[in-house]
Amino acid sequence: MDVKTYRAGSLQEALRVIRQDLGPDAAVLHTREVPQGVMRWLKGRQVEVTASASVRVPSRFESSPPKQTSASTATAVPAAHYDDFRARFRDAIRDDVAQSTSLVEDLCRESSDHSKRDLPESLFEGYMQLLDAEVPEQAAREMLEQLRVACSGDELEDSVIVRTRLARQLEDQIRCSGPIRVTPGQQRTVALVGPTGVGKTTTIAKLAGNFRVREQRRVGLIAVDTYRIAAVEQLRTYADIIDLPMEVVTTPREMRAAISRFADLDLVLMDTAGRSPRDEIRIQKLKTMLAEATPDEVHLVLSSVANPATLKQAAERFIDVGANRLLVTKLDEATGVGGILPLITTCGLPLSYLTDGQDVPNDIAPAESRKLARMVLGHELA
C-alpha cells in the first residue's frame, strides 16, 4: 500500500504537492498541525498530510454511493450526504409529533366516549349542564354517580325526574348559615376576612347599609385595613353617607378599646386587610387581632371568579384564623357558578351571603341552597 506523508506551510500547499506527486485521484487519509513549540516562531506553521494513491476513500461530494472496486477490498462506507442524518432526524421528529398528536386525540376521544358510555343518556344531559356551569369534571362525575346509585332504573329513564333529583341533591350538599341575626340591645360582632381583591370593603358597606337603613339597627364599623389607605377612606366615605360611627385600629389594644366604645351598638362590623394565604406573618397578626375582638362570626370572603385551587388554599388557611362562615362575591363576573361548588361542599363552612354587583347597599342576599342549586343547573340567573 503506497502511503506517503507530506509537510507544508498550509493545507492548500500540501494538497498541491500531493496532486503533483500522486495524481488527482489521490486520497487524503489524515491531516494534523505539527506541534513545534518555540521553533514555530522560526519556521512558521507546519501542516502534515498523509495521503495515498492506492487506498480508496469515498468522497463526500459524490452523487451516488461508492461502488466496491474488487472482492478483496473492504465494503465502501456510504457518502455522508447519501445517508442523510438531518433528513432522518427530521423524519423521526415528525413521526414522534404525529404519534403524540394521535395519542392525545385518542385520549380525548376515549374520555368523551368514556363519559357517554358510563353515564346513561338520561344523566348525560345533567352532566353537560354541570360542565356548562364550570363544575370541575371530576366533581360532576361524582355527583352523577351518586345520583345513579340513588335512582331506580325507571327513574333514570325520566329526564324530568333526573333533573329534579339532581337539583335536590345539590341543595342537600350546600349548607347555608342564614343571614346575620341581630338582637336589639345585644352587641354582635362580625368580622370579614379573606385574600386581597375579593370585595370585603364593599361587602361591609352593603351589610352596614342594610342593617342601618332597612332594619334600623345601631351599627358601628371598625377598619383594620391600615395597609391600604384607599380602603380605609372608602369605608369612611360609606360611614359618613350612612351616618355610622367608625374606628380605625392598628394594635390589639386599640381593638379592645374600640369594641368597648361600641358596647351600646347592636352590630359591629370589622373590615380586615386582605391577606395572602402564603403570608404567614400577616396571617398571624390577623389572628391576634381577631382573638382580641372575639367576634361572634368570622366570614371568609372569596371571589367566585378565582380558580378552584386558589379557593381551596385560601379556605384552608383562613379556617385556621377562625373563619366560621363563607361569603362568596362577584357572581356577576363569573361565567359559571359551578366553580365554587367543590369548595362549598368540602370546606366545611356554611354559606352566609352571595353578592352579584357593586351597588351599595344592594347586590347582596343571604345564601339559599335551593336558589344556588338552580343557578348551577341554569334554571335561575345569577
Question: Could you explain the architecture of this structure?
Answer:
It is a single chain. The protein is of the alpha/beta class and 382 residues long. The protein has 3 domains: 1-57; 103-173, no CATH class; 188-376, Rossmann fold, CATH 3.40.50. The protein contains 14 helices and 11 strands. The strands form 2 sheets. It has an 8-stranded mixed β-sheet with strand order 6-5-7-4-8-9-10-11, with helices on both faces. Strands 1-3-2 form a 3-stranded antiparallel β-sheet, with helices on one face. Helix 4 (121-132) packs across helix 7, helix 7 (159-173) crosses helix 14 and helix 10 (252-261) runs parallel beside helix 11. Mean pLDDT is 80; it is low at 60-64, 69-74 and 110-117.
- Described by the principal axes of the CA atoms, the overall outline is elongated
Number of helices: 14
Taking Cα atoms only, what radius of gyration do you get, to the nearest Å?
A: 40 Å
**What's the CATH topology label of the largest domain?**
Rossmann fold
Corresponding CATH architecture of the largest domain: 3-Layer(aba) Sandwich
Structural classification: alpha/beta
How many beta-strand runs? 11
- The domain tally reads 3
What is the H/E order?
EHEHEHHHHHEHEHEHEHEHEHEEH
Can you say what the CATH homologous superfamily of the largest domain is? P-loop containing nucleotide triphosphate hydrolases
Largest sheet data: 8 strands, mixed
- Mean pLDDT, as a whole number? 80
Q: Uncertain runs with pLDDT below 50, 5 residues or more?
A: 60-64, 69-74, 110-117
Strand share of the residues?
15-25%
